[in-house]
Write a structure and sequence with these properties.
By secondary structure, this protein is of the alpha/beta class. The chain has three domains: 168 residues, Rossmann fold (3-Layer(aba) Sandwich), CATH 3.40.50.970; 127 residues, 3-Layer(aba) Sandwich (Rossmann fold); 175 residues, Thiamin diphosphate (ThDP)-binding fold, Pyr/PP domains (Rossmann fold), CATH 3.40.50.970. The protein is built from 23 helices and 17 strands. The strands form three sheets. It has a six-stranded parallel sheet, sandwiched between helices. Strands 13-12-14-15-17-16 form a six-stranded parallel sheet, with helices on both faces. Helix 7 links the parallel strand 5 and strand 6. Helix 1 packs across helix 2, helix 1 runs parallel beside helix 7 and helix 3 crosses helix 17. It is globular.
Amino acid sequence: MQLGAIITQALRNQGVQELFGIPGDFILPFLQQMQDQTNALPFYYMTHEPAVVYAADAAARAANRPTAVALTYGAGALNGVNAIAQAYEEYVPLVILAGYPSQKEINSGLQIHHQAKSIDSQRAIFSEITCAQVRLDNPDTAIENLQFALQMCRQKSRPVLIEIPRDATNFNLPAMPNQSIELANPPIHENQYRQLTTALTTARRPVILSGIKVRRSGAQRALERLAEQFNIPVVTTLLGRATVSPSHSCYAGVFCGDTQTRASQLLYDADLIIAFGVVYTDSNFSAHRELINAAHFYRIDFPTQSLKAWCARLASEPLPLFETRDISPIAVLPSSNFNADSVVQAMHQQLSQQRALVPLISDVGDCLFASLQASPTDFLAPAYYASMGYSVPAALGVFVATRRRPIILVGDGAFLMTGLELGHCLRYGCKPIVVLLNNHKWDMIAAFAPTLQCTALQQWHYPELAKAMGIESLRAHNAESFSESFAKAWADHDNAYLIDVWLPENSRTKRLSDFAETLTTINKSSVSKV
């Protein structure tokens, strides 16, 4: 069999249903071979490597399974490094199929174009942002290496690198078994389990803190059943926001550092906290280190532990039904100013009347904090690594994986990074609604450095850019005009829309201001005096 046929079959066996990428010289023979398969994976290409990886990342998050990306050697793969690093840190399973020079090219003694310091620099760099790296340069070991990389991708829920030499498409390989790789669950740590069950028998106010790895490991339903069985409130981290349904009877909100929320109050009042699959980030816990270091804080991690097995076994214990606590959100007065919060509130008011599941994709900064004003059941955002420009290309990935119409929350600064990728959405039938929060600057940067002189952005004509891409555009200056614009865009399923929302000066949300103040205060307080 040809290598392209082997890889197509292996990817499909692991649940991969699409291939994202950008054609480049070292990967062209492989792409041609992949395209020629009778069961070829649909290929989605865009303009820039980071955007392609963001799209694949979003498809993997939305479908909770691996997706694949094809990039050329050096210039292509290295251009995607930042986006792949984000996927690594946020536990997104991506299969990176990267080109590599042929043996004849290497033997020539010449430096290869797209080569960095050495012929193996690509692999060395990717060793920092992938959980496995293999090279399919030997027909005797190609299938074994391929299967190992795919197994690591699924087992650790992180990106892997598979390098494909230009001449590897000439291999004649034996047929590969048409079966998926079954992963064995790691055994539960018995001492840790006994300590936790003992603590639960005496606890009166337990709380579950759910992190993103609950979703990545497929433990969502098991965790929800555990919480419901014993009436334990569930709080999520900001990155783990989509791990529990907002309509679940025990759902108590998102803990994002703000102490004036129900989620924060429950955690600080708890006499036992069970943290499932949490990533301990500065954005969530810099100001709350005493909470996560407390003796009653129990950590259960993935992939060293099976979160699903932990939840199922705990649910079988003869534990009491804990008394009901108030888990309703603390009432917050609607913003009197027109800002990102009021935009999302107006949007949520309309979407909450829909029965359909609506994916909401947010970029970082005020978009991310304002998104807490909505309660979506399908939410994506780079809430920890926080790379700007994610949301627009991510919309294509979400559409590819779910066939649902996505809504994008993006600031003008992030839009200028990847906004032109919207033009590719239409080619594939994706017709998103882009809510562009336009405050004419990088306001997230200004929040951390108020006197910095390089955060202002030139006033771009976003409606004209949208028109050039075949996208309808609207403009809003206040809550009323935004509500009207969003209603019009939502009612028109035949077109993609960009709503250019002009925000007034000094319209930054309180959450972003508090977040910036918290981190800068911590950094100032830790400076050593000499």
